[in-house]
């Protein structure tokens, strides 16, 4: 019953109505079994009870399937038939005999009102409630205070059920739109991170080195590699897609999969030593600029001074999370090479606080002028905003950036385990 209906709030509403319908049938069955022998026509009463059971079973199966199968005509036809049968059984109960003897409670008839409210909203609930209320008056043959109260209860129940069902469905649709928009934003940010870490860095390298005599074959090779990486990335969206890797990046640094140095924990999840990964990253980092008076363009360049301090013991972290932390630290070190000034050095401090790891990247460069980060983001430079903050935010962490002109910059990453 529950597996064949539509998903989400609409499916939950139909299942709730089915439960109400069967509870009503059970109540009618117990009450009729206790007093039906005193009715004028007990066989007719038993027949009406059988119709209630059979029709409840049919609707329990058919209505959710019609809704899930996108058959609006069949669904509306079933609900119209439901309202008609509910109203007919109210009148038919009068033929069974005195209400005090046959005791066929007509709470079950309210299910038709609720069904119409789910399909046609408040208007459907009020119209079907009014019809069933008229049938009660016809059955009793008089307008009593009790019938007035019952009629008002039917009308109010239909109106409230219609309003709440429409409100629920609209809220669910709005939530789905918001989640879809959020997923789209997250996917665009993921693409921006990968493009920034790979393609844009290679383009910057080509733009810087080509005028200095970088061989045309090397330019063509780098361009072809990044074109292929970008095409793979766009063809395979999602966290598991191919990624563009910047030259010199350590294995697994931005793949998100942590292939390098990974181990499996007791739960079968790949683990990596974040301390070793950061040491490997520091070993691989170079400054793309030749030293003053040093080798000619296109020849090996000097290594950037990067000092890594770790706890001295492995710092295990889930491999995919470790890869993202390493990629964020690499982006921070790339910022040092680009913006901290000639001769700047960097220090990376890794701390294991149990529930989280803290990575601090400091440099002794020119520092961070007020408003510089905001201007960089407005100009489309994505290093701090996307490659660092975006990655850490996706891991559930936070980034703090401190810096003053002439006093270096400090980037602190807090990443929960």
Set down the secondary structure blueprint.
Blueprint (H helix, E strand, L loop, with lengths): L7 H28 L6 H27 L3 H25 L2 H4 L7 H31 L4 H65 L6 H20 L27 E2 L5 E4 H11 L21 E4 L6 E3 H21 L6 E7 L3 E8 L8 H7 L4 H12 L3 E6 L5 E8 L1
Parallel strand pairs: 3-5
Antiparallel strand pairs: 1-2, 2-4, 5-6, 6-8, 7-8
Helix pairs in contact: 1-2, 1-5, 1-6, 2-3, 3-5, 5-6, 6-7, 6-11, 8-9, 9-11
What are the key terms here?
alpha+beta, 417 residues, 5-stranded mixed β-sheet, two-component regulatory system, Heat Shock Protein 90
Task: Please give a structural write-up.
The structure is a single chain. The chain has 417 residues and is of the alpha+beta class. Helix content is 60%, strand content 10%. A hairpin with a 5-residue loop joins strand 7 and strand 8. The longest helix is centred in the middle third of the chain and has 65 residues, at 145-209. Residues 239-261 and 287-302 have low confidence and may be disordered. Keywords: Kinase, Membrane, Transferase, Transmembrane, Transmembrane helix, Two-component regulatory system. This is Sensor histidine kinase. GO terms for molecular function: kinase activity.
How many strands, which pairing sense, and closed or not: the largest β-sheet? 5 strands, mixed
Number of strands: 8
Low-confidence stretches: 239-261, 287-302
Residue share in β-strands: 5-15%
The helix fraction, in percent, is 55-70%
Distance between the termini: 41 Å
Helix tally? Answer: 11
Q: Globular, elongated, flat, extended or rod-shaped: what is the shape? A: elongated
N to C succession of SSEs: HHHHHHHEEHEEHEEHHEE
Overall mean pLDDT: 76
Number of domains: 2
What's the Cα radius of gyration? Answer: 35 Å
The helix-and-strand class reads alpha+beta
Strand order of the largest sheet: 3-5-6-8-7
GO molecular function: kinase activity
Transmembrane segments: 12-34, 40-62, 74-93, 113-138, 145-164
Protein name: Sensor histidine kinase
GO biological process, one term: phosphorelay signal transduction system
């Amino acid at each position: 019953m529950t597996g064949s209906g539509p998903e989400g709030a609409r499916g939950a509403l139909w299942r709730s109505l089915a439960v109400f319908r069967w509870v009503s049938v059970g109540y009618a069955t117990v009450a009729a079994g206790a007093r039906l022998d005193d009715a004028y026509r007990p066989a007719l009463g038993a027949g009406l009870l059988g119709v209630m059971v059979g029709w409840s079973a049919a609707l329990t199966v058919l209505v959710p399937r019609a809704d899930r199968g996108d058959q609006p005509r069949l669904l509306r036809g079933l609900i119209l038939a439901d309202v008609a049968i509910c109203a007919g059984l109210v009148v038919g109960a009068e033929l069974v005999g005195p209400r005090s003897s046959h005791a066929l409670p007509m709470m079950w008839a309210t299910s038709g009102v609720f069904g119409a409210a789910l399909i046609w909203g408040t208007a459907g609930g009020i119209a079907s409630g009014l019809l069933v209320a008229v049938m009660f008056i016809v059955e009793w043959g008089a307008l009593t205070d009790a019938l007035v109260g019952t009629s008002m209860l039917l009308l109010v129940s239909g109106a409230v059920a219609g309003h709440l069902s429409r409100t629920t469905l609209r809220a669910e649709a709005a939530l789905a739109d918001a989640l879809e928009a959020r997923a789209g934003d997250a996917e665009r940010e993921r693409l921006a991170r990968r493009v920034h870490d790979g393609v844009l860095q290679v383009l910057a390298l080509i733009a810087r080195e080509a005028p200095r005599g970088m061989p045309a074959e090397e330019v063509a090779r780098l361009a072809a590699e990044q074109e292929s990486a970008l095409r793979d990335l766009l063809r395979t969206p999602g966290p598991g897609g191919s990624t563009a890797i910047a030259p010199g990046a350590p294995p697994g640094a931005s793949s998100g999969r942590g292939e390098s140095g990974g181990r499996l924990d007791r739960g079968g999840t790949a683990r990596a030593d974040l301390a070793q990964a950061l040491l490997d990253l520091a070993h691989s980092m170079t400054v793309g600029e030749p030293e003053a008076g040093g080798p000619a363009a296109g020849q090996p360049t000097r290594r950037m001074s990067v000092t890594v301090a770790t706890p001295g013991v492995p710092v295990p972290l889930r491999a995919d999370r470790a890869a993202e932390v390493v990629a964020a630290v690499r982006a921070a070190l790339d910022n040092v090479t680009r913006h901290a000034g000639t001769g700047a050095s960097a220090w990376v401090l890794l701390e294991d606080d149990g529930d989280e790891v803290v990575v601090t990247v400091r440099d002794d460069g020119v520092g961070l002028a007020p408003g510089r980060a905001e201007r960089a983001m407005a100009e489309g430079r994505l290093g701090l905003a996307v490659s660092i903050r975006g990655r850490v935010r996706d891991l559930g962490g936070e980034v703090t950036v401190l810096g003053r002109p002439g006093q270096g910059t400090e980037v602190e990453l807090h990443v929960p385990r």
